[in-house]
């Protein structure tokens, strides 16, 4: 099941709906605090704990969790930014009968810090009179567990407004937030555990989950299983990686247009000099860009065809105006540099920019990076689950575009094909020993499909 991802505004709207439908405000916080305590106990056991609480509902969750951790046998202290201001948090604080310390240079460290300073309500950097002691307490702790988000992180953008240090575990309330899956915040979250707190979460934004791949037709032939056609350019090694990956990702027939034999390709990948091959109606996906180099006519030729397209790498740098893609059934797979070359400096978070680019081109955009996003023109947005940083290796992108081309040729619709490709690529990386090279990803594909 794909986990939904909600903005801070959507979370508040959802919470409001629940209240209007009769959910008691404090009951919701009780559920959040209980989920936080339970996840903390499972992660770190009942140990010496310092709960840092802010004035809002994130702090409220902390008061509830602190009480339940005491009941579970942990030795717990609370240090607070100040008196709670949110209504439910005031009730939660009332239920805490022990002393509350201040957060300052005298606050004693503890084995486990429960970070309940700020969650989705953070709107600006944290003042240094709180940030400085909090940083010291994070560093001194053996484990840091964050409530909803590590404090200092902007929920919608994944920006780190104030760096307090990373959490080992983040317990997210109700739904994932964009920051759990956007850099640089995602790297500060540690493990992310979802706590269901009884809110009905649905969204067009979600974490990409294991795909349902098209079933094999027992009576089918190779062309039923998808034909990928690749255009070779100045550096054939790159398209060789894509073509090989497409074949391993289950395309029934993979062909490369090339004017000279490419070494190292499996013999099963057909190499052809025949320009007419591009008009083959059986082509399920045409892939151009990896290793294309400075040969713009390759893109021009691709854009004269009506086949579904995957445009990657150099092809993206030669598009020029995004309007040129209008009317094409295309998946674009830019990394940050290619994205900026094609779309300029769009404003907003990476999520906003990905969706703007998809709307502008009416194409599916795979906006790569440590936090890969898949955006559809209709507003769907898939966030990749974390993948090994070792993926930042030459040719890994070529492998990805090949896998996506195979999924498209196998009949998946563009957004689903792109999400499936991103998921398989990440899992293939996880299946490899580190350090790996792009070729190893291809070899690992059968293990994850
Ligand atoms: N919504 C839901 O469905 C559920 C939410 N739940 C929990 O509530 C959390 C959100 O709570 P929240 O809205 O009260 O905000 P929170 O993060 O505690 O911040 C508190 C206040 O701090 C202020 N402030 C902001 N930045 C600041 C700064 N740098 N330095 C100083 N002050 C700053 C700002 O007020 P301001 O000063 O801007 O008026 C803000 O309102 C959420 O993360 C989750 O844990 C769950 O319990 C149940 C389901
Ligand atoms: N730090 C990182 N953590 C996880 N994945 C990464 C990281 N950096 C890059 N990637 C992934 O590795 C691949 C690199 O693709 P790309 O930049 O096109 O490289 P190349 O052109 O060498 O093939 C993309 O799928 C990207 O999402
Ligand atoms: K927090």
UniProtKB/TrEMBL annotation:
Tell me where in this chain the YjeF N-terminal domain is found. 11-205
> What domain of life is recorded for the organism?
Bacteria
Task: Name a single GO biological process.
Answer: nicotinamide nucleotide metabolic process
Which residues are listed for (6S)-NADPHX binding in this entry?
57-61, 119-125, 148, 238, 291, 335, 398
Tell me which InterPro entries the record gives: Carbohydrate_kinase_pred_CS, CARKD, Nnr, Ribokinase-like, YjeF_N_dom, YjeF_N_dom_sf
Q: Give the EC number.
A: 4.2.1.136, 5.1.99.6
Supply the alphabetized keyword list.
Answer: ATP-binding, Isomerase, Lyase, Metal-binding, Multifunctional enzyme, NAD, NADP, Nucleotide-binding, Potassium
Molecular function (GO) terms for this protein are: ADP-dependent NAD(P)H-hydrate dehydratase activity; ATP binding; metal ion binding; NAD(P)HX epimerase activity
Reactions mediated catalytically? (6S)-NADHX + ADP = AMP + phosphate + NADH + H(+); (6R)-NADPHX = (6S)-NADPHX; (6R)-NADHX = (6S)-NADHX; (6S)-NADPHX + ADP = AMP + phosphate + NADPH + H(+)
Q: What does the subunit comment say?
A: Homotetramer.
- Which family, according to the similarity comment? Belongs to the NnrE/AIBP family. In the N-terminal section; belongs to the NnrE/AIBP family.
| UniProt protein name | Bifunctional NAD(P)H-hydrate repair enzyme
Which organism is this entry from? Sphingomicrobium sediminis
């Amino acid at each position: 099941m794909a986990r939904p991802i909600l903005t801070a505004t959507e979370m508040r709207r959802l919470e409001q709906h629940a209240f209007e439908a009769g959910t008691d405000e404090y009951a919701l916080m009780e559920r959040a605090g209980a989920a936080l305590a339970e996840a903390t106990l499972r992660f770190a056991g009942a140990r010496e704990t310092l709960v840092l609480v802010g004035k809002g509902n994130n702090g409220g969750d902390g008061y509830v969790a602190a009480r339940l951790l005491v009941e579970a046998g942990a030795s717990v202290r609370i240090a607070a930014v100040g008196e709670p201001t949110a209504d439910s948090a005031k009730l939660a604080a009332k239920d805490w009968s022990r002393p509350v310390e201040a957060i300052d240079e005298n606050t004693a460290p503890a084995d486990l810090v429960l970070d309940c300073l700020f969650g989705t309500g953070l709107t600006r950097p944290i003042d240094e009179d709180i940030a400085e002691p909090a940083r010291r307490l994070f560093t001194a702790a053996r484990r840091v567990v964050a409530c909803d988000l590590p404090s200092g992180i902007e929920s919608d953008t994944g920006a780190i407004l104030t760096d307090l240090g990373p959490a080992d575990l983040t317990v997210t309330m109700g739904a994932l937030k964009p920051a759990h899956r956007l850099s640089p915040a995602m790297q500060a979250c540690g493990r992310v555990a979802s706590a269901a707190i009884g809110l009905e979460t649905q969204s067009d934004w979600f974490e990409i989950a294991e795909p349902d791949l098209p079933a094999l037709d027992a009576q089918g032939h190779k062309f039923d299983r998808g034909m990928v056609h690749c255009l070779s350019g100045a550096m054939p090694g790159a398209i060789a990686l894509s073509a090989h990956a497409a074949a391993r990702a289950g395309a029934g027939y993979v062909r490369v247009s090339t004017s000279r034999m490419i070494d190292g390709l499996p013999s099963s990948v057909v190499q052809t000099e025949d320009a007419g091959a591009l008009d083959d109606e059986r082509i399920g996906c045409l892939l151009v860009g990896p290793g294309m180099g400075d040969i713009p006519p390759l893109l021009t030729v691709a854009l004269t065809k009506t086949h579904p397209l995957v445009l990657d790498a150099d092809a993206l740098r030669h598009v020029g105006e995004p309007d040129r893609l209008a009317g094409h059934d295309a998946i674009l797979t830019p990394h940050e540099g290619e994205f900026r070359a094609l779309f300029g400096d769009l404003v907003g978070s990476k999520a906003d920019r990905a969706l703007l680019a998809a709307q502008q081109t009416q194409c599916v955009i795979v906006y790569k990076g440590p936090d890969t996003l898949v955006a559809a023109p209709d507003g769907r947005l898939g966030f990749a689950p974390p993948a090994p940083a070792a993926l930042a290796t030459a040719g890994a992108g070529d492998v990805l575009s090949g896998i996506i081309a195979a999924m498209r040729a196998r009949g998946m619709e563009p957004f689903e094909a792109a999400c499936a490709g991103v998921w398989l690529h990440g899992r293939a990386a996880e299946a490899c020993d580190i350090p790996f090279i792009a070729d190893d990803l291809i070899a690992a594909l059968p293990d994850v499909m």
